[in-house]
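Blinded run. Sample ID left blank on purpose so nobody reads anything into the name before looking at the predicted structure. Input follows.
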Amino acid sequence: MRARESVISLEINGDARAYQLAIMMQHEIVNDLVGGAPITVTFCPFCNTAIAFDRRVADRELTFGTSGTVRNSDLVMWDRQTETWWQQITGEAVVGELTGYQLHFIPAAIVAWESFATQHPDGLVLDRPGNPSTYDISPYDGYDDIDTPPLLFEGETDGRLPATARVLTIESDGESVAYPFDLLQAELVLNDSIGALDIVAMFDADVFSGFQPGSSERIAGATTVFNRNIGDRTLTFESEDSLFIDQQTNSTWNSSGEGVAGPLAGQRLIPILHANHFWFAWAVFKPETVIRDDIGDLMLG
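Blinded prediction complete.
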């Protein structure tokens, strides 16, 4: 694997896993057992939506597959136990026996393979099945060009941003907020508050696009998000040489939210559920989303 290749990263009960975006681009769903929890990791290439769920619903343990159908360009999954159909972005059952049920989201992030391997030396990575070189060619090569129209999308897109612009999205206390990657690229770290939630978003500008796995020419960037409260302290972060320094204690943190030097070394920030989607896909399901595209828009708690 290349050092800056994109992987979906998550950790449950100390069990860290990485799922290559090159594999997810073609298979879209992995059912797994991580830290004792049955989960499913999903990726919709049309929407650039990487989302993990707990696959226990209504006292049943489900396994998921692709239905072959999309709605608003987004992957519609189905479970093999009841054949219910599920909308990936929202995690809602939309057709079948379990209609109305909601899957529980699990925090996951797209990061560089090098970052995962360094920060989780005992972590596991999903291996490429069959012929490994198959995954060096993406069926959606170049689709993440910002001028490319969405695939299989009908209706109008939200014109506040380009349709396939990458955005960081977070929901809290009924509020939905989107941060364009252009802002994250410029600032590298964002301190903000959404409702009662104090967050820090840490941006890695040098992560390869999963839509061009065989080449290092296209850079996408990726972000991790954490609650910036430690005990009764609310921290404010600055970026420094690919690491992050909090102003309150001058401790150093990596992009996995781990304190690596200073008074708070060994402390861990709590991951926040977030997504790195294409704008059109998020906006069609969450049209009330507020865009914070300027540093002056941030609401520090």
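Unblinding after everyone has recorded impressions. Residues 6-125 form a domain with the Rieske Iron-sulfur Protein fold (CATH 2.102.10).
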